[in-house]
Amino acid sequence: MYPWQQSQWQQVNQLIAANRLPHAIFLQGNQGLGKTDFAVSLGNAVLCKQPAADHQACGSCPSCQLLAAGTHPDLYHLKPVPAENSKSKKPTLNIRIDDIRTLCAQLNQTSQYGGYRVAILEQADQLTLAAANSLLKTLEEPGRDVLIILTSARAHRLPVTIRSRCQLMRFTVPEASLSLAWLGQQPQAAGVNEKQLQQALHYAFGSPLSALEYLQESEPQQVLAEAMVAGLSGKSSLPYAAKLAKFNKVQLLEGMLAWASDLSKLKACGSEAHITNEQYRNKLAAFASKANQQRLFRFYDQLNFNVLHASIAVNEQLLWENLLLSWDNL
Ligand SMILES: [Zn+2]
């Protein structure tokens, strides 16, 4: 469990202690806050045969050993996967009706290990509509000792009929000081200085796990920076489109939003502005003074539209070409 999840665990602890654990819990909050890890901890806790005083799993009983091996018969973990016949290199990921039907049938049987049956549905917003409808029946009549845990960073995309049948648990972005302290302790962040940690956290909109991902895999953001700086320097950034198309689309779109936001801030607040891409401040400031406000707004809209519809498959090279062209011509 992460240090920023203590209040949520406190809630779980109280629910279990009062014997009032609901049959469905919906973990909601931005990406990179560790909701899935929390769901796993919660699942382990109710399946553990000798939980600790705060109801966390002991990690050593026979049940916990099965959980550690990934072979506990009463734990089901679903996440979005590509369609079986998909040949696309970057296929759309969904949780499909067949998987939900199988899951619901399993949850209807008696537990194999005597106790709870737990289902974790990761990124539940990726349930297809048919799958969501199929899940609804089980959410309405879950049977005894069933716990269904859903996680999502895009809660609004889940049908309200699903959401309303779950107890909501919110995860919010932790204080920067807490995230920075945690990041500094991670082996992956060894040798990374405070400024770089802050920058990664900025890129990740304050989500510590996403920040850690940025630190581990800095290549996409570096290529993005090269492209953006080319635009700032009056060169064409278009040649970078093909490279960008190879990386994770959403991460890069969010990175680009940070660049656009830096420009807006410099335009509005001048040298007072706190910006993400601090090392390019001079270039950004010069560009900001020339950039057209209306075009900048349109660029924002374009980026937000693509973030919002990120799950729709598009020709990504074309997408980046369009966005880079807009950037060059701000
Ligand atoms: Zn245990």
List keywords for this structure.
330 residues; binds zinc ion; 15 helices; 7 strands; 2 domains; Zinc Finger, Delta Prime, domain 3; alpha/beta; two-stranded antiparallel sheet
Write up this protein:
- The protein is of the alpha/beta class and 330 residues long.
- It has two domains: 3-171, Rossmann fold; 217-328, Zinc Finger, Delta Prime, domain 3 (Up-down Bundle), CATH 1.20.272.
- Helix content is 51%, strand content 9%.
- The strands form two sheets. The chain has a five-stranded parallel sheet with strand order 2-5-6-1-7, sandwiched between helices.
- The longest helix is centred in the last third of the chain and has 21 residues, at 249-269.
- The chain binds zinc ion.
- Residues 48-50, 57-58, 61, 63-64 line the site of zinc ion.
Evaluate the radius of gyration.
Answer: 23 Å
Which spans have pLDDT < 50 for at least 5 consecutive residues?
Answer: none
Strand order of the largest sheet: 2-5-6-1-7
What is the chain-wise order of helices and strands? HEHHEEEHEHEHEHHHHHHHHH
Span of the ends, CA to CA: 44 Å
Q: What would the principal axes of the Cα set say about the shape?
A: globular
Broad CATH class of the largest domain: Alpha Beta
Percent of residues in helices comes to 40-55%
Write down the domain tally.
Answer: 2
Question: Mind sketching the topology for me?
Answer:
Elements: H1 6-17, E1 24-29, H2 35-47, H3 62-69, E2 75-78, E3 81-82, E4 93-94, H4 97-108, E5 117-121, H5 129-140, E6 146-152, H6 160-163, E7 167-171, H7 176-185, H8 194-203, H9 208-216, H10 219-232, H11 241-244, H12 249-269, H13 281-290, H14 293-308, H15 316-328
Parallel strand pairs: 1-6, 1-7, 2-5, 5-6
Antiparallel strand pairs: 3-4
Helix pairs in contact: 4-5, 7-8, 7-9, 8-9, 10-12, 12-13, 12-14
The protein binds zinc ion.
Zinc ion binds at residues 48-50, 57-58, 61, 63-64.
